[in-house]
């Protein structure tokens, strides 16, 4: 298997996620004196590229116009753009990837990209569809960090054309970056589940902040409101795109949530203490049974 | 002013909150060799009392039947029982408090207790109605900790009979325990605001867990679902009591939340990207403007 420390990594997009992955690769795979690997990065944000160079995170930077020049040198490419731009990028630069390269993306919605596979795949380039389940309510390279992946989930959606040795290689790579649980599934189940764990949560957090009477409410906060709404410091254009790209799944989960909310609301309205306590006890049991990784903040 | 280190503190109820307050008083006010203060505690849970003695958190323990014996010796009393029991306790032991004592509670709902004041107050005992905005999804003395108050809010609802010097004294006490922001308000506004920041959040978290398809969903979690539902590992009897004791306020906030949820849902259903992005951007601005204390987990 290829050694992680001697490969050339390329980033198309060096924002929060691209920046964090690049920093993790630098810190965990390329920090020894013998490492001959390199990190190349392309972004339209020149300040981000300059900062990444200055901090020694990347070795070379490229403007978007020079993307093809970068891609032809990279063994591993992470496309870390917004979902629609990811698809456009993979199509536009299909011919420019290095033969034998492993290419992956980080999109939060997968149906579009997987349906575009015929326009993306090349026999000698392996595209592995993936979703690192990490992030921050703060965006951009400035807020990127190599630590956000520790103990997190990574979802992979292998397809028939993927070479087994590349899937194995990629799993080793993301494990080395700190991810501790890799779930393999297909893109439809991914989009269905993610609409619940991620998109619905962002909708709820946003609605909760929207319904707040004023911004002074946190003088009465004890942590619950703060925890529920941290993700409402939302990257509006990105999440608009994610919500709409996964609209049907998200709407179905919103409906199911509303049914549960109504069930609890009815018990409160009816002052049905026994019924309410029974539902809350079942909720406690269900939530306690969920295996959650202890997340470092 | 009386010295915090030479007072006798009494706890009626030594669960998560009583235990945490007792530990904080022990660690922050009574840890010097010259401190002559004591901590007495009453609880129906003998194991909790034994543990508190063994760990040196309290100096003497009392069974519920001996509550009056404890109260007559205490300069400061924290009643840390469930809301309805708090009212019952304050009424039942009205005659047993030490003359000159300062008594406070920790109830999450205040209308009931404040309407019972005529049956609680005594001219020579000062009852200060308060709400420490801290806690944990884990209950009981075993999970108590002196650290949960750092940087937290404490809400005080002074009333006309409170002596200004006692309010000042009590503020100094809770500040010494780690609370960093004290908000003074009246009980009606407290119950209105808390129905939003606390009870509505617990309803939403519970409904979200209720609507989860299965307990394996967290394999697809990236932190959002985990953060939104940590409080759904809920103490069902306590929150049933809190929801029902503040029913009208809570139902009004649930209705407002549903309006906001519907507004966002409609924009998603209509695939109105511009409208959706505009609402999310406003949410981001509103949430970012909220001053939240950096909470230590």
Please give a structural write-up:
2 copies of one chain form a homodimer. By secondary structure, chain A is an alpha/beta fold. Chain A has 2 domains: 4-185, Rossmann fold, CATH 3.40.50.720; 190-289, 6-phosphogluconate dehydrogenase C-terminal like domain (6-phosphogluconate dehydrogenase C-terminal fold, Orthogonal Bundle), CATH 1.10.3660.10. Chain A is 47% helix and 13% strand. The first copy, chain A, has helices at 16-29, 46-54, 67-71, 83-92, 111-115, 117-120, 164-176, 187-210, 224-229, 236-245, 247-269, 273-289, and strands spanning 8-12, 38-42, 60-62, 76-79, 102-105, 126-133, 153-157, 181-184. The first copy, chain A, has an 8-stranded mixed beta sheet, with helices on both faces. In chain A, helix 8 (187-210) crosses helix 11 (247-269). The longest helix of chain A is centred in the C-terminal third of the chain and has 24 residues, at 187-210. The radius of gyration of chain A is 21 Å and the shape is elongated. The mean pLDDT of chain A is 95. Chains A and B meet through helix 8, helix 9, helix 10, helix 11 and helix 12 of A and helix 8, helix 9, helix 10, helix 11 and helix 12 of B.
Low-confidence segments of chain A = none
Main beta sheet of chain A:
8 strands, mixed
Write the H/E string of chain A, N to C. EHEHEHEHEHHEEHEHHHHH
- How helical, in percent, are the residues of chain A? 40-55%
Please name the CATH architecture of the largest domain in chain A.
3-Layer(aba) Sandwich
Per the principal axes of the C-alpha atoms, what is the gross shape of chain A?
A: elongated
The structural class of chain A is alpha/beta
- Greatest contact between two chains: A-B, 93 and 93 residues
Number of strands of chain A: 8
User: CATH class of the largest domain in chain A, please?
Assistant: Alpha Beta
Strand content of chain A: 5-15%
Distance between the termini of chain A: 34 Å
The overall number of domains of chain A is 2
